[in-house]
Specification:
One of its GO terms (molecular function) is kinase activity. Keywords: Kinase, Membrane, Phosphoprotein, Transferase, Transmembrane, Transmembrane helix, Two-component regulatory system. By secondary structure, this protein is of the alpha+beta class. It has nine helices and 14 strands. The strands form four sheets. The protein has a five-stranded antiparallel sheet, with helices on one face. The chain has a five-stranded mixed sheet with strand order 9-11-12-14-13.
């Protein structure tokens, strides 16, 4: 079986099958064409002889008909050794002249003379084939029958060979076209494993770094390349995992120093300095937590059978963020569905996404503004704010990591919406943003119902 893993061996093997089938069909087609060419030439020769005999027919003064065959032509039609046999019939089918000794027509008695050609088996087993050619002389119509015993057909072999090539040459192109189509099918079949490997490679991403290309069904010539690609993917996965683990470890390690710094800052006597440092530590702690969330979500995969109550997730997120909204002088409201909305997904991850959307809306809404979280029964969450809105040119870039419109603001690191994007992608969902007609933005998180 290993010998047929090579593309060349597969192509050769399939070509052998194709040639075998073609070697059977082509002789049959050529035999049919050759037979048709021979019959056509034979009929043309018989018609020519009928016209020759017609030239020997002469009308008489009494209205009868005479046949004057030159002596040098008589051997062609003489007895059982002649190459041709003839019979001349009147319009009623009566035999007027014949080279036969029984005064019978060459065709079967009673067969219509209007038939262009005929064939009849003789008593000795041979087959007589012939043609019927009408000829008008004066006011009378006569039928000239010329036949030939198939035993004499070898005399037209030269004509058949001479005319065979131009008659059959046209079939060369269709045969080559068929062989080309067969080659296409053969190569497609032989390269199926390569296309499957391409599809597998296209599915490899940040959440599926463990996927590898199969080497089992791969052609022998491609196996070294596939093996090298798999080894490269192993190295990339190791580096990607090390980077992700480093980010997570750093985020974890920074939490303890930040907690110690906060405890020491709380003991400072200078109130202005203490408040400023406390704000800086809060922002640093928030950034560290977001980096940790990003690191965890990079390897996050939603189980196909998991589901979450989206209405409950949004209610928890609103309750969690309500103190921050009240502290900033803003209000927050939960609207929409009041009954469970089950979606395919992970409740904790969805909570992080909705929380970051709400935090983003609170940060950009003016004092006294309202943040609204609307949950729809189709698995859609709308987070509406009364901020300045998002320009059309920034509606794609705001979801990228560390993107910030105003980098002078210390409380934003551009990670919140990136977390939302990663959660939506892990759930086969989408996140979009549009401006509200009355001012502000509306972020739409669409999820699949369970």
């Amino acid at each position: 079986m290993n010998r047929f893993r090579s593309i060349i061996s597969r192509v050769v093997a399939l070509h052998v099958v194709a040639i075998g089938v073609t070697s059977i069909l082509m002789p049959l087609a050529l035999y049919w064409l050759l037979n048709e060419a021979a019959n056509s030439l034979h009929r043309d020769a018989l018609r020519a002889q009928a016209l020759t005999i017609a030239s020997f027919m002469r009308p008489t003064a009494t209205g009868d008909l005479t046949l004057e065959i030159p002596p040098e032509a008589e051997p062609i039609y003489s007895g059982g050794y002649g190459l041709y046999a003839y019979a001349i019939l009147d319009s009623k089918g009566r035999v007027l002249f014949t080279s036969r000794g029984d005064d019978l027509p060459l065709s079967v008695v009673g067969e219509p003379l209007t038939n262009d050609s005929f064939s009849r088996r003789r008593r000795n087993g041979t087959v007589l084939i012939g043609v019927n050619v009408p000829r008008a002389i004066g006011d009378h119509l006569y039928w000239i029958q010329v036949g030939q015993d198939l035993a004499h057909r070898d005399v037209i072999i030269d004509d058949i060979v001479a005319s065979f090539l131009p008659r059959v040459a046209w079939i060369t192109f269709p045969i080559l076209l068929v062989l080309l189509l067969i080659d296409i099918v053969i190569f497609r079949r032989a390269l199926d494993p390569v296309r499957q490997a391409s599809d597998t490679a296209a599915s490899i991403g940040p959440t599926s770094t463990d996927v590898r290309l199969s080497e089992q069904s791969m052609p022998a010539e491609i196996v070294p390349l596939v093996h090298a690609v798999n080894e490269a993917l192993d190295r990339l996965e190791a580096g990607y995992r090390a980077q992700r683990e480093f980010t997570a470890d750093m985020a974890h390690e920074l939490r303890t120093p930040l907690a110690i710094m906060r405890a020491r800052v709380d003991s400072l006597e200078d109130a202005a300095m203490r408040q400023s440092l406390q704000n800086d530590i809060v922002n640093m702690t928030r950034t560290v937590n977001q980096v940790l969330d990003i690191a965890e979500l990079e390897a996050f995969v939603v189980d196909g059978g998991s589901k979450a109550d989206l209405q409950a997730v949004c209610a928890d997120a609103v309750a969690f963020m309500a103190p921050l909204a009240v502290n900033d002088g803003k209000t927050i409201a939960l609207t929409g569905a009041e009954t469970p909305v089950w979606v395919r997904g992970h409740a904790e991850a969805l909570f992080r996404a909705v929380r970051n959307l709400i935090e983003n809306a609170i940060r950009h809404s003016p004092t006294g503004g309202t943040v609204e979280v609307d949950v729809a029964a189709d698995g859609t969450v709308l987070v509406l704010d009364e901020g300045p809105g998002v320009p059309l040119s920034e509606r794609e870039t705001i979801f990228k990591r560390f993107w910030r419109r105003d980098r002078s603001r210390p409380e934003s690191r551009g990670l919140g919406l990136a977390i939302v994007t990663r959660v939506a992608a892990a759930h086969d969902g989408t996140i979009t943003v549009e401006d509200r007609p009355q001012g502000g933005s509306v972020f739409t998180l669409r999820l699949r119902l369970a």
